[in-house]
Amino acid sequence: LLEGFPEQVELSDCEADVLYSDMEQTGFITTGNEKINQLISNILWSQRSNCIDVPTDCPQRDERLGWTGDAQIFSTSAAYNIDAAGYFRKYMYDVSCEQKKRGGRVPVAVPNICFNNQVSAGWGDAATIIPWNLYRMYGDKELLREQYGGMKAWTDYIISQDEASGGTRLWTTDNHFGDWLALDAPPEVPTGGTDMVLIATAYYFLSASLTAKAAEILGNAEDAAY
Asked: Is the pLDDT reported for residue 25 higher than 80?
């Protein structure tokens, strides 16, 4: 509803501009089913609407923050659709800047504007998962080399938490989001019904494994063995 105009405003009087980061589409799929073609189009436009300098959360929310968990989950799919190397290279630079201020910790959203030092398994692991996914999709060792310091810093942070809480090789500290919004828990428990330590430790293993693989590829034999 528009108010305060001297005359009736028609829909044809309005013009909308689409705003998103300029990325070349490299993946194209056309099928014989129009509904599937529409779904593919919806996916591409959803990707564009969530790629405005940083990878943001679902477009119906007004916050438009660069949630690290959403970014790592979608990073491989993004690279199938577009040339995402430069886009995520920039985002991982942002992540590394946050890490340098926080002793290797990765905030749940980057840039971090309102979460202080909160970290969560699955979100912080963007520091290891996104670089590995970029290497897997593009085979570019230099991208991996640029981001290796952040991979190692995040994994070292988890290791430090483990050592400080008994060296059990479990990740038992921090305030995680868990299986966020899962339906296997009461409505007032948005973190889901899966054990938090199980989820965190699974990501501990994943980040350590990916960092070791990156170290081996980059010729850092001592890090890989550690």
From this structure: yes
